[in-house]
Design a protein that fits this description.
The chain has 208 residues and is an all-alpha fold. The protein has one domain. The protein has nine helices and no strands. α4 crosses α5 and α4 packs across α9. The longest helix is centred in the C-terminal third of the chain and has 46 residues. The termini are far apart. The relative contact order is 0.12.
């Protein structure tokens, strides 16, 4: 079973059309979920280690100011936003994918971000300034590979045409932006309510 956990995800990112078809129709949903959560966990760990241990030539962050919780949120929140937005839109537009299928297929698309970026955390400490080009090129390859896998995932899971898949991806990104705006608006409102209650409480205490 442990070999399957490693072999199948790596095979999927190399053969995405067959891999996502198997994910939707031929594989255990429970096993897919376990692997999906493992990928999210590994990506979060990769982000944390990258912020903390990447070489100074490529590390744009101050390791002393790194917040592990926020690094985890930078992975978990976008994934959840994407899945919710994508599921909401495709439900209205006759998509065949279930929420769990959207989640697992999205997480599997993240694998190149782990496979490519993780080794560069350590390699970035021994490269010269001229060799940083290879670092940025590898990061670009990881992102492009991820976008391609996400495209294939949506097309296969929802059984959409390529053009409709592109449209859905664009709408999903817009919906994520709207969700982020509503979320920030909500938290801002909560903060204002808490501040208002705190002021009233202080006034009452001072009068007494």
């Amino acid at each position: 079973m442990s070999k399957e956990w490693i072999k199948y995800p790596l095979n999927l990112i190399v053969h995405p059309f067959n891999g996502y078809w198997d994910l939707k129709y031929d594989r255990s949903q429970k096993l897919n979920l376990i692997i999906a959560f493992a990928v999210v966990f590994l990506l979060a760990v990769t982000n944390i280690l990258s912020s903390q241990y990447s070489g100074f030539l490529v590390n744009l962050f101050n390791p002393n100011e790194m917040n592990s919780f926020m690094e985890i949120m930078y992975v978990v929140v976008p994934v959840l936003f994407w899945c919710v937005a994508n599921w909401s839109l495709t439900t209205l537009l006759d998509g065949e994918g279930k929420f769990v299928e959207i989640f697992t297929s999205t997480c599997f698309a993240l694998i190149p971000l782990v496979v490519i970026n993780f080794p560069w955390i350590w390699l970035s400490n021994v490269i010269s300034l001229q060799e940083t080009t290879f670092y940025y090129f590898s990061n670009s390859v990881a992102v492009i590979w991820f976008i391609f896998l996400l495209f294939v995932a949506n097309m296969t899971v929802h059984q959409f045409t390529p053009s409709k898949t592109i449209g859905i991806i664009i709408l999903t990104v817009l919906a994520m932006g709207f969700m982020a705006f509503i979320g920030l608006l909500f938290f801002s409102l909560v903060q204002q309510i808490i501040a208002f209650i705190s002021v009233i409480y202080q006034e009452l205490v001072m009068r007494n």
